[in-house]
Design brief:
Structural class: mainly alpha
Main location: membrane
Pfam families: ABC2_membrane
Number of helices: 10
Order of helices and strands: HHHHHHHHHH
Strand content: under 5%
Helix content: over 70%
GO cellular component, one term: ATP-binding cassette (ABC) transporter complex
Number of strands: 0
Distance between the termini: 30 Å
Subcellular location: Cell membrane; Membrane
Number of domains: 1
Largest sheet: none
Organism: Haloechinothrix aidingensis
């Protein structure tokens, strides 16, 4: 077993031992889809363009999970590790710091994608939802969203001073962004000014990309969301790399 494999194993065990992190990364998306399916069902209704609730909203649930993980769970966890000295102790080992970061990102990414895949399985197998487009493309867009908001989480962890501040800032950001993204409330019901302002949010762009691909649109029809997400990914990665602190 290589050092990298051992490190991934250690990070996986550590993440799974954190109840909140494990719940929001793996279990929240499938359970949310299951709950919404049990409440609303998936019978076609005019409000969703003669589609069922799960058919119309399954893809956008991904954005809710990604936002909570990236804006709250990741920065709070990393800042807590910094405050307790866990990162400092790791830095004292012979392993290169980049190895820790790569393993942490790999584990969080893999577990997030596992939760998202199970969520789609619940919607498709449990409630008869079906992608009008390519499901593989939807999963690829989900992966882009996960990576983007993981980078944002690392950027927040790099600049926020304490666990309490990280938790507070994350909560202040996540709920308005979810509400304005179209994942929880249809954008069509919002006033024009708010709806136009919401387009500046990367979470709104992620929802538009996911829903577009789910409904059968091509990637070429969603270049703006893709470019926005790639831009945020690049900027957040640069901030995290520049300001990340081990103690």
């Amino acid at each position: 077993m290589t050092i990298a494999t051992k490190l991934v194993g250690v990070q996986t065990k550590r993440t799974l031992r954190e109840p909140a992190a494990a719940f929001f990364v793996i279990a929240f998306a499938p359970l949310f889809a299951l709950l919404m399916g049990l409440i609303f069902g998936n019978d076609p209704v005019p409000e969703f363009g003669d589609r069922g609730y799960i058919d119309a909203n399954l893809a956008s649930i991904t954005a809710i999970v990604v936002a909570i993980s990236g804006l709250v769970v990741v920065p709070t966890d990393i800042v807590t590790q910094r405050e307790t000295g866990a990162l400092r102790r790791f830095r004292a080992t012979p392993l290169r710091p980049l190895a820790y970061i790569a393993a942490d990102v790999a584990v969080r990414f893999a577990l997030s994608m596992l939760g998202i895949a199970v969520m789609f399985a619940v919607g498709i197998l449990g409630f008869g939802a079906h992608a009008h487009g390519n499901l593989a493309g939807v999963l690829l867009a989900s992966a882009l969203g996960v990576l983007t908001f993981l980078a944002v989480g690392y950027a927040l962890a790099a600049v926020l001073p304490s666990q309490g501040v990280a938790q507070g800032v994350g909560n202040v950001l996540v709920f308005p962004l979810i509400i304005l993204s179209g994942a929880a409330v249809p954008l069509a019901v919002l006033p024009d000014g708010i709806r136009q302002g919401a387009q500046l949010s990367p979470l709104t762009q992620l929802v538009e990309l996911l829903q577009g691909l789910w409904l059968g649109q091509a990637w070429s029809e969603n270049l703006v969301p893709v470019l926005v997400l790639l831009g945020v990914l690049g900027i957040a990665t640069a901030i995290a790399a520049t300001f990340f602190r081990w103690e």
